[in-house]
Design a protein that fits this description.
Structural class: mainly alpha
CATH superfamily: Winged helix-like DNA-binding domain superfamily/Winged helix DNA-binding domain
Distance between the termini: 43 Å
Number of strands: 0
Largest sheet: none
């Protein structure tokens, strides 16, 4: 085996890489569309917690609501998101 053929064999197939990247973009677009269907207060807490990684207390302070409200909104948001994602990718 030559050095050139060894290097060629170690490179990932560009078509597979591009296909994987396209699927990732499609999933992000799908998720953005699904998030848009949630009630604004549910979408807000979901993004702050799951995407931005804020703690419940931080979210409560930011939104000026009790932490229990954040927790209940997050529970409802996750339930709604789970329901909308049923059958996704099947």
């Amino acid at each position: 085996m030559t050095l050139e053929s060894a290097m060629e064999a170690s490179r990932p197939d560009e078509a597979l890489v591009v296909a994987g990247q396209m699927r990732e973009v499609e999933h992000r677009v799908d998720l953005a569309g699904i998030l848009a269907t949630l009630a604004p207060e549910h979408r807000e807490v979901l993004v702050l917690r799951e995407i931005q990684g804020l703690a419940y207390g931080e979210i409560a302070q930011m939104l000026r609501v009790p932490q229990g409200t954040v927790e209940s909104r997050l529970h409802r948001a996750r339930s709604a998101l789970r329901e909308r994602l049923k059958g996704y990718g099947s």
